[in-house]
Design a protein that fits this description.
Blueprint lengths: L8 E3 L2 E6 L4 E8 L6 E11 L3 E6 L11 E5 L2 E6 L5 E13 L2 E10 L8 E3 L1 H4 L3 E3 L4
Parallel strand pairs: 1-11, 3-10, 4-9
Antiparallel strand pairs: 2-3, 2-8, 4-5, 4-10, 5-6, 7-8, 8-9
Length: 137
């Protein structure tokens, strides 16, 4: 059963999240109610033979960058139409994030967001039943 809107936590268009599995704390993310799946900035994204994907998280210029190569199971691949209209096939992984004190299992598509201001986008799948977005915040 869905929570009533008055029971949902109100968040703004920018939030701080933690990703405990990757030892990342207070990384800034943009809320994107137009996206279903969340996305995260990665480099050197490559599938490996065991149904996993290998990647570097973020860029060396980002304060949370640690040059660590991560390997995660591929949940699925998904065709995603980006804001510039291009369709890109992306790997989707899952991890737990902490947003406003709530631990949430989130799916992230992996993509190069180096040209974007925020390395993470949080989509509707994470927000639904938990948060309302007030863009004035």
């Amino acid at each position: 059963m869905e929570k009533r809107s008055k029971d949902l936590k109100i968040i703004g268009r920018l939030v701080q999240i933690d990703i405990p599995q990757w030892n990342i704390n207070e990384i800034e993310a943009k809320i994107d109610t137009g996206a279903y799946t969340s996305s995260i900035h990665c480099n050197h994204i490559a599938p490996v033979n065991n149904g996993k994907v290998r990647f570097n998280l973020l860029d060396p210029s980002h304060p949370a960058y640690n040059d660590k190569i991560l390997e995660m199971p591929i949940i699925k691949t998904k065709a995603v139409k980006s804001s510039n209209g291009k369709v890109e096939e992306r790997f989707v992984i899952k991890t737990v994030i902490v947003l406003e004190g709530q631990k949430i299992e989130a799916h992230f598509s992996l993509t190069d967001r180096s040209e974007m201001r925020y390395p993470l986008l949080i989509g509707r799948r994470v927000l639904r039943g938990r948060f309302l977005v007030d863009v004035s915040k």
